[in-house]
Amino acid sequence: MTFEALKQMKRMKANLRGSASLILLLGTLAIFLLANVLSPYGPNEIGVGDHFAPPSGAHLFGTDNLGRDLLSRILFGGRITVLIALGATSIALILGSAWGILAGIRGGWIDEFLMRTADALMAVPLILFALFCISALGSSVASLILVAGILLSPSTARMARSAVKAELASPYVVSAVASGFSKVRLVWNEVMVNIAPQLLVQISINAASAVMLEATLSFVGFGLQPPNASLGTLILQGYAQIYNSIWFVLFPVITVMMTILVFNNYGEQLRLSLDSKRSSS
Amino acid sequence: MRNFILRRAASSAIVLVLSVVTVFLSIRILPGDPVLLKYGAQTGATPAALDALRESAGLNHPMLVQLMIWLGGVVRGDFGTSFISQLPVSELVGQRIPATLELTFFIVIIASILSVLLVLIAIRKPGSATDRFIGYVTSIGFSTPSFIIGIILVYIFALRWHILPSQGFKPMDLGVVQNMKLMILPAFTGAMVVSPYLIKYLRTSILETRVSSYVRTAKGKGLSSSAVLFRHILPNSIVPTLTMLGMIVGFALGGVFVIEYMFAVPGIGSLAIESASARDYSVLQGVSVVVIAFFIITTFVFDLVCGFVDPRQRVLQVKSR
Amino acid sequence: MNVNRLTSKKTMATGVAIALAFTLGVNFAPSQAASKNLVYGSAAGIPQLNPIILTSATEMPLTTLLWAGLTSRNENGGLDPDLATRWNANASATQWTFTLKQGAKFSDGSPLDSKAVKAAFDYTLKTPVSQWKIEIDMIDTIRTTTNTITFILKTPNAVFSEAVADIRIIKASEVDSFNKNPSTSGPYKVAKFTPNVSLNLVPNPNYFGTKAGLSGIDFTKLGDSTAAVNALRAGSIDFLDHLTFADAASVKSNSALQLLRAKTSSQTVVLHMDNQNAPGNNIKVRQAMAYAVNRQSLLDNAYFGQGTVSAYNTVVADASPWQCSAKAGLTKYSYDPAKAKKLFAEAGITKLTWWGVSGILPEFTTMAELIQADLKKAGVDLTIKNSEVGAWVAGFYPPGTKYPGLVVPNIFSLQPDPAYSMYYMKSGGNESNWNNSQYDTLFDKAITILKPAARKAAWCEGLKLENSQTPIVAMFNIFTVHAASSSVKGIWVAPNGMAHLEGASLGN
Predict the structure, then answer these.
(1) Cis peptide before C399 (omega within 30 of 0)
(2) Does B185 map to a domain?
């Protein structure tokens, strides 16, 4: 690891140990992953309350159109959303890094080609791409992870490529190559480790985007099968019933926004600590 | 420079062709076909009758043959006709493009104005309460999916206060006022999705240039603050901003389809969705060509412009071979 | 610094003032709705105009707005003369003669005479797939004179005069470029058509009947139900086709709006199972399904109570005058989870899959969740699988498609006469893949009987068979509800849910 990268990692660790954004992030994840412990009712229990009941002691977030407790549905829905986001982020990380690093190392035509493909992928309308994948694969947690992961790869690839290119231009690489070290071995052993801090930031941002993607995909109808619901599906149902109850749409919306905010915030913190030049931001 | 253009054009062309072929094949893999979707639900639709229709529509040829036939048509400028309405694909696409372009245009304009204003307010005193407040608002903007922004705006302005219509579209020739009224909510939704990125970038690059050496030199020479801003800072912030703008236009074009869906704006995005759902192969293929080509060309043009404006970029590009 | 000037309070205030003025001013500017065109909003678009190849429910109102038929249905379920002034049949119902109005024209001025009618019928008979073909495919020859048209049928058809009401008279020579600018025979004609986006109609000056009551109709596509209701409340549309059941209550409470629905319903919500493949080929399983579903609860929760239960489990409604009910020995399939459990256990069924659709018909999804709970009580695990429309349709259309293990929801909007719904249950004609030759024979016999009372008894035989064999679970009939502003008059809704606007006017 270069000295520079080492300093970055140290800074990140120092800034973030005990930082508020990390606590928030871990707290949010904990709440959702512990859904079956925390939720007062089953998420699919029909008729535990009146239809469209406003928030009350028995139902903190009110109930939905079939009398199910909304808080429970949000907790379980959040768990599904978070799982999808984490899965998609992993796919984007692996696929995107490989994509970008390959383009960065090889350069030339391969680089051009890979990057134009990234452009084309970003050009395909989200809804259309989802329509294809989900019609072919059926809508499930796995297919949503796949779709979101693939859609997040181009930006990760872009970022990985520029990071790799920057590293390849730095003195230690240039001299190593001049001394006869193979580029590929260099990347594998040294460069990857040095771009790790930047990749970490990208992961957090990707996770936020993945939550957004999942919510959007579910809202346009490609979400999970009933009676299971992710946060996006809940918003879709709530919006259709907006004349019957404002709470049904309000609570899932706030939950989604907060989840994305928490991921973004953490990513921001990571990025800030990465960059020592920014003093006045 | 010439090499850059040639190489870019060649790789773009290849990717365009590959993408379009992927779309061609993907939609045929999906269950269902245009004959089934158009006639299948009718009383009296027997498998034999449907198959006869498929035969006459050329859908029973092997996929590769169908692909060759279609590509042959495209090269001659003939994109085929819609199976459902029998109207030429080019006509259908032509009917829908204006709405998408108009929406994208307004999104970019509103986003640019909004972002520039907010950034100028924020950098009066970096680190002040105003600056931080704008920072928080931007954070929230980053964290809100487009459709949620849409829901909020619709709820406030249409469902609660009844000031604006919640969706629809009227072409310009039927009334500019009506058209604008219907554009307000979708355009603002799109602008609010896109602005956080612009704001962040613009702010960072202005602040960066402000503390750079040549600005200090200019100030040292005695130039007034405003002159420094307009003669040195802004022009040097333009390149990264232009890059950003390029991405924004692409971003807006891609994200605009969700907004089109939400606000029932009859643009290219909704045409793509409708034709995919109805398995109207030729229409979907035609739309894909248009959209992907447009996107690739836009990024190409922006990269070119940036290379033009910033001579350093051109040199770097040559070097990166 | 110049920046200060840019962002001074004054500039900000001016900017805000301008923006506000624009918004409010734009709101008060004279809007398009001030003219007398009726603005018709619908959640789905109109993909094409040919009424013979009807592809979607949204095209249905156009069949009577743009075209005339020999006869037309009226609000009371009866038949009115349209292009034909009178008609008669021979005793064996194999020959029908219609006398036509003289001097009628298409919108382009060409003659709307017996030759044009024959051309339209020939086209319908020749076209590979048409919704209406099966109603008239017993036609052997068509003979025309100057003012009459005679149909000679291969087999008798007692309801032929009603069948021809569905064959709207198009100009057969235009079929290849139909969506550009079709010549119409009804009260309105097409001014402009953008598929799935908009359609503008204006009165047809050459129409032979009562002149159009509106200066025009503008069809516009809306995105989702919430926006649609909002547009109606805001007055930017005058008529909303197919109000979502969830929104009906909120429209009801609004005095500036009216709800429109039919007097009776022939729209049946059903569940299909594949009668040719397991487990649907086991009558015990089918009967178990019929007992397992809580029809009233489904109606109340998914359709907000807008309908009537079909206890007799036939596609013909319980309240239909053609229903023969318990008096004739039909069984009532009331909600009985215990009985369902017993039957499922006897058949050895513990798992089923719901094959539903996403993006449209949200009521199906609500039903899925409720039926899942119902089936649990009957000892069966229901997995819910929703697909988008194309994949959903491909899973069980056309009749003959195999779908073992699936339970598929569907909704029929047929005419109330049993000839329609019972024809559907004939071999090879229904998605439940029920092929029963005895039923076919019963149907073929009943359709030949001219006298209604005797025909009713014949239909009853078929209903008894349907009731005992339970090829399909017919759960309830629902009322499609449309909404309009109170200034709209003259719209009526048919039992199949279709809105008729031929006589509509915008009055005060």
Answers:
(1) no
(2) yes
Smallest Cβ distance to C129: which of B39, B92, B264? Answer: B39
- C26 three-class SS: helix
**To probe the interface with A, which of B142, B208, B313 has the most A CB atoms within 10 Å?**
B142
Instruction: Tell me if B27 and A124 make a contact (CB, 8 A cut-off).
Output: no
Q: What is the mean pLDDT of residues C171-175?
A: 93
In the chain, the amino acid numbered B156 is I
Domain that holds residue A70: 21-48+57-280
What number is the average pLDDT over the span C332-340?
94
Q: Which of A46, A135, A242 is the closest to C373 by Cβ?
A: A46
List of chains touching A (3+ CB pairs within 8 A)? B, C
B29 near A CB under 8 A: yes
Q: Which residues of A touch C368 (CB under 8 A)?
A: 226
Q: Which residue of A has its CA nearest to B12?
A: A116
Segment among A52-66, A256-270, B105-119 with least mean pLDDT: A52-66
| Contacts A–C by Cβ distance under 8 A | 56
Q: Where are the beta strands (DSSP E) in C101-187?
A: 139-144, 148-153
Say if the Cβ atoms of B84 and C230 lie within 8 Å. no
With contacts defined as CB-CB under 8 Å, which chain C residues touch B154? 226-227, 230
Number of domains in chain B: 1
Compute the average pLDDT of residues B202-230.
72
Q: Are A100 and A159 in contact (CB under 8 A)?
A: yes
Domains defined along chain C, listed by start: 267-478 (3.10.105.10)
Does C89 have pLDDT greater than 90?
yes
pLDDT at residue number B315: 44
The per-type count for chain A, helices as H runs and strands as E runs, is 12, 0
Write down how long chain C is. Answer: 508
Cα-Cα end-to-end distance for chain B: 12
For the segment C198-213, the average pLDDT, to the nearest whole number, is 93
CATH of the domain at A27: 1.10.3720.10
Token pair for B69:
């036939």
- B26 inside 8 A of chain A by CB: yes
Is residue B187 domain-resident?
yes
Chain C residues touching A233 at Cβ < 8 A: none
Structural domain containing residue B301: 2-31+79-319
Smallest Cα distance from A280 to chain B, Å: 7
pLDDT of residue C435: 94
Q: Is residue B17 part of a domain?
A: yes
Q: For an interface test with B, which of A21, A81, A127 has the most B Cβ atoms less than 10 Å from its Cβ?
A: A127
More confident residue, C215 or A57: C215
Helices (H) and strands (E) in chain B, counts: 14, 0
* pTM score of the predicted model: 0.82
Backbone dihedral angles phi then psi of residue C259, each to the nearest 5 degrees:
-100, 140
A2 assigned to some structural domain:
no
pLDDT above 60 (res C341)? yes
Beta strands in C147-281 (DSSP E): 148-153, 188-194, 198-203, 217-221, 239-240, 257-260, 267-272
Spatial separation of the C-alpha atoms in residues C82 and C99, rounded to whole Å:
10
Chain B CB within 8 Å of residue A275 CB? no
Question: Given this model, what pLDDT does residue B247 score?
Answer: 64
Residue A266 has pLDDT above 50, yes or no: yes
B137 domain-assigned: yes
Count of domains forming chain A = 1
Query: Do residues C502 and C186 touch, judged by C-beta distance below 8 A?
Result: yes
Q: Where are the alpha helices (DSSP H) in C265-329?
A: 283-292, 295-302
Contacts of C391 in chain A (CB under 8 A): 135
Residue A7 in domain: no
CATH of the domain at B189: 1.10.3720.10
The distance of A112 to chain B (nearest Cα, Å) reads: 7
Looking at residue B233, its pLDDT comes to 65
B3-14 pLDDT, tens digit each: 777 887 888 888
